[in-house]
Design brief:
This protein is of the alpha/beta class. The protein is built from 9 helices and 8 strands. Bound molecules: D-xylitol-5-phosphate and zinc ion. D-xylitol-5-phosphate binds near residues 67, 177, 178 and 196. Zinc ion binds next to strand 2.
Length: about 230
């Protein structure tokens, strides 16, 4: 299995965002995880398409993984596609017509994914999994960085991994929330291939050394190598 590390910029220094993203990618991260919150679907407010576009203009070429925690979903999809999103993932309960939203993301030229909160059942995957590029399992309740990993999500991950493998699909399985060096190996062993980490990465070091993320990314990779 090839593993991908996706730092969540929610915990980055927003006053120096371009530099933060450059540094974390230079340290070996694979994907930029971009948390969009609307103070309606979740009780917090973050960043939108303008910031995604600004990162592209700054020169970021890595995949940008846009995690939409917004309701409604459809209106904002074309804006993120134009802004340079690679993946666009959304919560099924935030869309009135899940199949339509998946198609809208695909038609806009992006890779669609569904996101499941810790207590949200997986039943919609029966009719959607073959249309997705990504399944994202929340291992915290969405809205804030720095929360504690909810362990029952490991069972959920094993279940989704089984579904993907049984159907021989090429769908990424991503996890988001409370992931760090202490648990990333167990998460990988449950079948996850893409790991969001916000506070564990950006909280690792506060000085201005451009290589300051080398050791945390290396620590995550070293744990993954043992999985
Ligand atoms: C939470 C966000 C996460 C968050 C993860 O709603 O979706 O991406 O930034 O942060 P940590 O890794 O600190 O739990
Ligand atoms: Zn996220």
């Amino acid at each position: 299995m090839s593993y991908r590390i996706a730092p969540s910029i929610l915990s980055a220094d927003f006053a120096r965002l371009g530099e933060e993203v450059d540094n974390v990618l230079k340290s070996g991260a694979d994907i930029v995880h971009f948390d969009v919150m609307d103070n309606h679907y979740v009780p917090n407010l973050t960043i939108g398409p303008l910031v995604c576009e600004a990162l592209r203009k700054h020169g970021v070429t890595a995949p940008i993984d846009v995690h939409l925690m917004v309701k409604p979903v459809d209106r904002i999809v074309p804006d993120f596609a134009k802004a340079g999103a690679t993946y666009i993932t959304f919560h099924p309960e935030a869309s009135e017509h899940i199949d339509r939203t998946i198609a809208l993301i695909r038609e806009a030229g992006c890779k669609p994914g569904l996101v499941f909160n810790p207590a949200t059942p997986l039943d919609v995957l029966e009719w959607t999994l073959d249309k997705l590029d990504m399944v994202l399992l929340m291992s915290v309740n969405p809205g804030f960085g720095g929360q504690k990993f909810i362990p029952h999500v490991l069972d959920k991950a094993r279940r989704v991994r089984r579904m993907i493998d049984e159907r021989k699909l090429n769908v990424s399985l991503e996890i988001d929330g409370g992931v760090g060096p202490a648990n990333i190996r167990a998460v990988a062993q449950a079948g996850v291939d893409t790991f969001v980490a916000g506070s564990a990465v950006f909280g690792a070091c506060k000085d201005s050394d451009p290589n300051r993320y080398d050791s945390i990314i290396a620590a995550l990779r070293a744990e993954l190598a043992k999985a």
